[in-house]
Amino acid sequence: MKKPVNISNRIAAFFLVVCSLVASAQSSTNNNEQHSRGADAQYLEVADHRREGFVPLFNARDLSGWHVSRTSHQGTTPNFFVKDSAIIVNQRPYGQGGVLLTNKKYSAFELHIEVKIDSFCNGGIFLRSTESGQAYQIELAIPGGNGSLYGEAMAISKSVKAENVERVWKPGDWNALRIRMTGEVPRVALWINGTFMWEVTQPKNDFTAGATSGMIGLQSHWSATYQGLPGGFNMPGAWRPGAAHRFRNAYIKELD
Questions:
Q1: Are strands 135-140 and 123-129 parallel, antiparallel or unpaired?
Q2: Exposure pattern of 127-142 as b/e (b: 16+ CB <10 Å)?
Q3: In this structure, are residues 106 and 214 in contact, taking their beta carbons and an 8 Å threshold?
Q4: ∠241-130-250 over CA atoms, to 5°?
Q5: What number is the average pLDDT over the span 21-46?
């Protein structure tokens, strides 16, 4: 004699399967929506830059539009290259730094750029740089004056320290810098990860002959001379062996 079929159990099992399939489909849809939102967010960030008048300073493929300074005291054989859509900055040979410069000169501008730096290597972003690397500089150094304004190859009238930068800086990660420079007598402002850090107007134009335009530069600091010099000095703490600075998502807008 056959056992009676338990209809209730079969109906319950059927509904469990249906519910499982629905839940799986909803999860897949949510994941796809989240992925799509992430892609859209990245696209909109680029679109917003373009809509607001910014243009790419770096094409994320190669160093077109840039060149290495052959007259900088930092060194003339640095190792600058592109990897994973970022400019990699380091020394070559060890001890010899250098400066990567835009081919174009800028006067009044706003620069947006993301940076990721290793500790114990000193570098920076040069503003209105000459070919030899004379510039106002945003320091990039941990430990050091990270986010501060100094002069490179020239004394500037008014340097500025980035107070409490450690509160907004993300060590070992990408950090977004917004830099604005205007005026024949330079006025410079800095934001890090959306937080205002400082703004300063120099008492005078500190450039030789009062230059009012120059190149954007990325610096790898020198740390040693090729050979010892009588009465000379080395800077072994300026760049850790194997360390690097990285730059990506660089956009610039020229201002009136």
A1: antiparallel
A2: bbbbebbbbbbbbbbb
A3: yes
A4: 65
A5: 41
Structure tokens at 210: 């009062």
Band (pLDDT 50/70/90 cuts) for residue 31 is very low
Note whether 202 and 189 are within 8 A (CB).
Answer: no
Distance CA 89, CA 207 (A): 26
For the entire predicted model, the pTM comes to 0.79
Same domain, 147 and 223: yes
Q: Which amino acid is at 212?
A: T
Give pLDDT tens digits for 39-79.
333 444 556 776 689 999 999 999 999 999 999 988 999 99
Q: Take residue 116 and report the two structure tokens written for it.
A: 């990721």
Query: Quick one: pLDDT at residue 104?
Result: 98
Neighbours of 184 (CB within 10 A): 12
* 112 and 21 belong to one structural domain: no
How many domains would you assign to the chain?
A: 2
Per DSSP, what are the bridge partners of residue 110?
180, 253
pLDDT in tens, 71-103: 998 899 999 999 999 999 998 888 888 999 999
Q: Which two tokens stand for residue 71?
A: 């007259």
Tokens of 16: 């469990």
pLDDT of residue 14: 46
Query: Kind and range of the H or E element at 230?
Result: none
104 and 40 share a domain?
no
